[in-house]
Structures are given as C-alpha cells and as structure tokens.
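Exercise 7b. Backbone tokens:
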C-alpha cells in the first residue's frame, strides 16, 4: 500500500489552491505541512477548497468517473477516431484490467479527496474560530467524503474505509477492505452530519458550496441504492419542501455555461477557466464529434462518450430534451447546420466555443429533476398507489419536456401505468432520458438489479463480476494479505 499510504499522508498537504468559481479563488498554499498548517480559520478555508478541488481531478469528475456511468451502459459507446476508441475501449466492452490507468486513477484520485477531508475533520475541532464557519467547513468535509466514498463503493464494492488522518504507517498497512454495508453506514452517518451542519443556501462568493439540500439529496439516493426506500422518502421530501430548488422552464438553458449554479442545481462540480488554472473542465474534447476546428477547437477527441443509436431513438419527436441532449448533427447559434460531423454526439457538454480545455462548464452531480425522480421512485417502492403522489412528481419532470402525463386510466397504452412494476419501468425510462450522459444510467441499472437484463436485450452480455471494476493491481501488490481482488478478475 505504498502508493495508497503516500496519497493518504500527503494528499491533504498538496494542491490546496484555487479550484473553482469565486468561493474558491484563494491563493495556493506553499510548503504546507501538518506542523505549521491547520492553525487558523484561513488555513481551513484553504483546506476545504482543496477538498473541493479533488472533485476536478482526472479520476473523479474531470474525466474518468463520469464516463463509467454511461460508457458501461446502453447510453454511449466509443468515439469516431482510433485514439478515442483505444483509450476507453476496455471499459465499454467490460474488459477492464486491474493494471488500467483508468481504474487506478479513479481509486487514487478519490482517496486523494478523502484524505483531505479526513485531515480537516481531524484537525478542525482543536482550532478556535467563528462557530458558523467551523460548522460550514465541517459539514462540507463530511459531504465531500460521503460523495467520494459513494462513488468508490459503487465502482469497486468492499473498500478500505479510512475515516481518520493517518500518521502511523502501521495503520495504513493494516487497512483492508471493509464490507459494503459498513461503508454505506459510514456514508449515511457523514451525510446526516452534513445535513445538520450546512446551510440551506449560500449567496455571493459562496454560491456553489455543498448545502443541506445537497446532503439530503445524496442521502436519499444512497438509501435507494441500498433498498431503504422508506428512509429515502422523508429526506427527499425535505429537499422538495425546502423550496430552495425549481425546474428551469427551459431544459436547454441548463446547459449554457453562464447558467451554472442555477435554481435547478443541487450540487455541481465547479470548474474554473483561468490562466494557469488546473481546474478547468475537459468536456469540449470528450464530448464533441470529430471535426477539425469545430467550435474553435483545433483537435477534438472524436468523442469518448458518443450516444448510441438506441438512446437517440428512445426520445420521442415531441420530447423537448432530445435536441438538447443528443443529436446526429449540429446547428450553430446562427441556426445554420454544420456539415462534416462524424456520427452522433452529446449536446449537453459541447461547451464554450473556442475553449479546448480548461473551460468554466460545471459538472452536474445532483439536480432537482434527479431529486424529483428519486422521490417518485421512493414513493413507488414504499407502496404503489394508482395516480398517487409518485405520479405527480414523475409527471412534473415530463411536463417540462413537453410530454403528456402518465396515469392509471390513460386510454393511450403508452401512458398507462397499472402496477408498481409498470411504474418502475417508467421511472427507469424517464431517468435515462432526463439524465442522459450525466453519468447515472449504469449505476441506476446496477442498483435496481436490471443491468444484466437491459444490456442483454441490447446484445451486451455481462457476467456478475463485471458489475464492479477490478481493484487496482498496485494496491494488491503492496498489501496482498489485506487487499484481495474482486472475484473472477
């Protein structure tokens, strides 16, 4: 576990500079160490900003992790160029290798952020400063640690559960894999703590920080993931009743870079476009089709996350989300069709023209439409009621898309839901269309137990062990007695 140990001990000391919009534009720490840092309010502001910055790392939301959520599903496939097809081919075809830099990148970069949160939580109670600010920073650290562990446990299963600032090499080497159930219990505990410490909203330079609504929204998703729908219902209802969030009137407006942190945003990763910044988004390259100088980008990636024909065809002609989500062509701002594009592409993340990388486009981790659909799902799982509240919240999302409502008595059979199972399938479809290419589809199918069935229907036959990624080989080599590979890898 040498590399893991290095990450845990040093990640909290490195790279704690600016990482997003206004609230993170602080000078970087230089020569920080455990002996002379974490002594003041300003130190902890810099430290929590460093924890936010971990979300922009390559293995988290900069690149690798969000691709897992769609590229392993029926939503997307490899791009149109040789380079784009080789980089993530193994992931798309379920041939993941324990030596893959993608697998190790996801593991290492998530633990980088966890280490920073652990150090903050270990040090903060021993330093006197403003109570309100201490509560906010503590709550943010709990939230970020929970989010990072939630990603890891869904990707790898049993995980080393590190919840303290490790300064003892013996403890580092003793950290084996913790059972999934215990990891989820720790995530739930962190999110409950976060929800009680964070404010409902922030203004000015603090917009974009994690809120109580973000903590409860993630908690609701965690409960649904572990099949505790009756626990998900009240926390998701609390988010809705808070009146902090609304659906934007236009789905298309969600994807304009200038509209980041809007009323529909519950939590999004803040990316910063600035000279010398290492925290700008990379989506313009990852999601644009291959065409030289397209959107002012000299060399596109050919798309590493290209929508499948199946996804494109899943949208009805009346669905207002279709042209804002996926397309087989591109119409520029002046209304002119751009010819010469190869294949389909994701329109949500075409990004800012003339910015090849390092853009301001944020990544949506949680948005209100997601919360409404999670709540509808939780209500249905807790007990199906014909035309009950679950229908209302599902139809609220559909209404924004310009689609007719579901009901138990609809004369149109495509709009009739007559059972709990019918409702499950309707939610599955709506989440696919609403959240397309946002990194949710694969994890939705896994948590509902539908991944193998749905993919088999699309000609993608996977085995049980392929529901998880392999543990990075470097972790096993360093600590073979404690870190055991996932079965059948």
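Sequence design result:
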């Amino acid at each position: 576990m040498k590399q893991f140990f290095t990450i845990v001990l040093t990640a909290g000391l490195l790279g704690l500079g600016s990482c997003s919009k206004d609230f993170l534009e602080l000078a970087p720490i230089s020569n920080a160490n455990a002996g002379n840092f974490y002594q003041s309010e300003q130190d902890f502001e810099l430290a929590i900003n460093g924890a936010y910055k971990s979300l922009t790392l390559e293995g988290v939301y900069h690149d690798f992790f969000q691709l897992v959520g769609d590229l392993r599903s029926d939503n997307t496939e490899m791009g149109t160029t040789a380079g784009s097809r080789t980089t993530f081919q193994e992931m798309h075809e379920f041939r993941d290798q324990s030596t893959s830099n993608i697998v190790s990148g996801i593991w290492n970069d998530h633990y980088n952020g966890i280490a920073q949160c652990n150090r903050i939580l270990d040090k903060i109670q021993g330093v006197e400063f403003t109570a309100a600010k201490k509560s906010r920073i503590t709550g943010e650290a709990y939230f970020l640690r929970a989010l990072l562990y939630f990603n890891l446990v869904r990707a790898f299963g049993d995980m080393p559960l590190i919840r303290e600032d490790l300064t003892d090499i013996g403890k580092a080497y003793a950290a084996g894999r913790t059972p999934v159930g215990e990891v989820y219990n720790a995530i739930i505990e962190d999110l409950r703590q976060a929800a009680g410490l964070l404010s409902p909203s922030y203004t000015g330079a603090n917009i974009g920080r994690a809120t109580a609504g973000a903590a409860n929204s993630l908690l609701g998703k965690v409960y649904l993931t572990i099949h505790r729908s009756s626990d998900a219902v009240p926390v998701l209802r609390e988010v809705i009743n808070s009146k902090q969030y609304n659906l934007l009137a236009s789905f298309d407006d969600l994807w304009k870079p200038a509209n980041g942190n809007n009323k529909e945003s519950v939590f999004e990763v803040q990316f910063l476009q600035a000279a010398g910044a290492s925290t700008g988004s990379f989506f313009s390259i990852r999601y644009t089709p291959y065409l030289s100088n397209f959107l002012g980008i000299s060399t596109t990636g050919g798309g590493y996350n290209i929508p499948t024909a199946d996804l494109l065809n899943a949208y009805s002609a009346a669905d207002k989300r279709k042209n804002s989500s996926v397309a087989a062509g591109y119409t520029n701002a002046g209304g002119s069709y751009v010819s010469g594009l190869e294949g389909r592409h994701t329109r949500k993340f075409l990004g800012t023209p003339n910015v090849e990388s390092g853009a301001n486009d944020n990544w949506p981790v949680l948005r209100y439409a997601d919360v409404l659909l999670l709540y509808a799902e939780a209500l249905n799982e807790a007990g199906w009621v014909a035309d009950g509240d679950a229908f209302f919240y599902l139809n609220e999302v559909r209404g924004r898309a310009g689609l007719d409502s579901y009901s138990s008595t609809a004369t149109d059979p495509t709009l009739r839901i007559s059972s709990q199972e019918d409702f499950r399938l309707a939610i599955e479809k709506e989440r696919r269309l609403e959240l397309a290419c946002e990194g949710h589809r694969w994890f939705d199918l896994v948590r509902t137990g539908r991944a193998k069935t749905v993919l088999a229907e699309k000609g993608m036959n996977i085995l049980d062990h392929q529901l998880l990624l392999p543990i990075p080989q470097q972790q096993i080599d360093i600590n073979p007695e404690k870190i055991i590979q996932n079965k059948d890898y």
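Instructor comment: The first helix runs from residue 2 to 10. The radius of gyration is 22 Å.
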